[in-house]
Design brief:
It is found in: Cell envelope. It comes from Paenibacillus terricola. Belongs to the bacterial solute-binding protein 1 family. InterPro entries: Bact_solute-bd_prot1, SBP. Its main location: other. The chain is α/β, with parallel strands linked by helices. It folds into two domains: about 200 residues, 3-Layer(aba) Sandwich (D-Maltodextrin-Binding Protein, domain 2), CATH 3.40.190.10; about 170 residues, 3-Layer(aba) Sandwich (D-Maltodextrin-Binding Protein, domain 2). About 45% of the residues lie in helices and about 15% in strands. It contains 18 helices and 15 strands. Strands 5, 6, 9, 10, 12 and 14 form a six-stranded mixed sheet that branches. A five-stranded mixed sheet has the order 1-3-2-4-13. A two-stranded antiparallel sheet has the order 7-8. Strand 2, helix 2 and strand 3 form a beta-alpha-beta unit. The protein is globular.
Length: about 475
């Protein structure tokens, strides 16, 4: 594969791109000059020998857009050559084929720095021994080590060896948004940081009931997925049980576990109590769901007829009421972990690269305090970018105080399950679960009978699918 050179002047290749990006570059350059960091490692002068860093990313354009000018400003004597992973990471291909192609691409291109937007591929390459352990480098930089969100370090170590084979400069978080005007009109206390799903649903029930009596006709909470089963999936992820009550890789149905039973009981009771009743009345019996606050999209929350909703950071900015936000729902066990915080793309060093130190210098710079500070100064009101730096010093400079609520969250440690049901089997499983839940909602069977039916039928389906492999 032909490698492409990335040699950008400040803002040069992106001439014509919106002026705010060039402003960011100029701000970064000024900071580097003032801090005396140009060159980033040692002051070797402009006559230092040019070095070449081979980078593997989804495309040359993607790398240039994200970090081309950053690196040129900090490393003027470094030439970057980019190899694209777009063909190897074609998601029309099975996971095994993508891994095979990535291994072949790494062997042929011999990159120094590898950028990935797929967490499962990062773990697969780490397990194959193709990436370098970054913990040695990070341990020598106490300042950086202390400023990286601990949940990011934790997630990057979720591989076979438990080693740190990557860092990610970005994390994405979700928040519990609420209609402050509605809560105030109803005389109900506002949501708080660190609430569990059970507490949020109890609060939602109060909003629904109070709004009905006051003629507001509002729903207390607007879910992302319809029905009790969808709500159970969200609670299960938050409580670190998994997305579904089964493990395909081991062929085990887990819905009869006490923890999963508690999840389904919580979800069903929320619906039986009428928490979502008004929304379903307006939706002709169908559960209205959230639009995620994307620009131009509307839902009951944007219309002011829902008390709370979970959405990505910077979602729901254009609403006709006073918008409040706190941290997303947390697990009951620790009250700190949430499925709503997760890493962005990863940066790794290829095992055996002769440019390991230079590659690490680039990673450390992008992860560092200076870039976080520049990004805080650059971020504008109305931005739709929901990524924030994994460097927590960003909160010291960012104008938005809600950032600290995101940084207080730790990610859920979901059990690994690389197994996959066929589309037909997955649909059959979902239909079975929804049917049993529906029968329980209509009092056609007890909760205990529902669990027994789901466990028996689900296990039979998994056994049948495993025999096909």
């Amino acid at each position: 594969m032909k490698q492409k050179r990335v040699a950008l002047s400040l803002g040069g290749q992106l001439h014509g791109y919106h002026g705010t990006y060039r402003l960011l570059v100029l701000m970064l350059s000024a900071m580097l000059v003032l801090a005396g960091l140009t060159g980033c490692t040692e002051d070797k002068g402009e006559t230092a020998e040019k070095q070449v860093l081979k980078v593997m990313d989804s495309s040359e354009w993607s790398f240039s857009m994200e970090y081309g000018d950053y690196i040129n400003a900090a490393f003027p004597n470094l030439e970057v050559q980019v190899s694209s992973t777009s063909d190897a990471m074609d998601y029309a291909l099975p996971r095994e084929e993508r891994l095979k192609r990535m291994k072949e691409l790494i062997a042929s291109e011999q990159p120094d720095l590898i950028l990935l937007g797929d967490d499962s591929m990062y773990k697969a390459l780490a397990d194959e021994g193709l990436l370098s352990d970054l913990s040695v480098y990070l341990s020598e930089d106490n300042n950086l080590e202390q400023h990286i969100h601990p949940g990011i370090i934790e997630q990057m170590k979720q591989n076979r060896d438990g080693a740190l084979y990557a860092l990610t400069p970005n994390l994405r978080g979700q928040l519990l948004f609420y209609n402050e005007d509605l809560f105030n009109r109803l005389g109900i206390g506002l949501p708080q940081d660190g609430m569990t799903w059970a507490e949020i649903l109890q609060l939602a029930q109060r909003v629904t009931q109070s709004s009905s009596s006051e003629g507001e006709k509002a729903i207390g909470f607007l879910p992302a997925f319809p029905g009790p089963s969808g709500l159970a999936n969200l609670i299960g992820m938050t409580d670190q049980l998994g997305t579904y009550p089964y493990r395909v890789s081991t062929g085990v149905m887990t819905v009869n576990m006490p923890a999963w039973q508690h999840v389904y009981r919580t979800a069903i009771e929320a619906y039986k109590s009428g928490t979502f009743e008004l929304g379903m009345e307006e939706g002709n019996g169908e559960q209205p769901i959230a639009s995620y606050g994307e620009p131009g999209q509307t839902d009951l929350f944007t219309e002011g007829r829902a008390g709370m909703v979970v959405g990505s950071y910077r979602a729901y900015q254009d609403v006709p009421f006073k918008l409040g936000a706190v941290g997303a729902p947390v697990d009951e066990a620790t009250r700190t972990r949430s499925f709503s915080i997760y890493p962005g793309f990863t940066m790794s060093l290829r095992a055996g690269t002769p440019m390991a130190q230079v590659g690490w210098d680039v990673i450390a710079f992008i992860m560092g305090d200076y870039v976080a500070k520049v990004r805080a100064g650059f971020t504008q009101d109305g931005s739709s970018d929901n990524a924030i730096p994994s460097n927590i010093t960003y909160a010291d400079y960012a104008k938005d105080p809600i950032i600290k609520s995101i940084y207080r969250q730790m990610p859920s440690n979901l059990p690994s399950d690389y197994g996959k049901l066929s589309n037909s089997a997955s649909s059959e499983m979902a239909d079975m679960i929804n049917k049993e839940v529906s029968n329980t909602m209509m009092d056609k069977q007890t909760f205990e009978q529902m669990i027994e039916q789901m466990q028996t039928q689900g296990q039979q389906l998994l056994d049948r699918e495993l025999k096909k492999k």
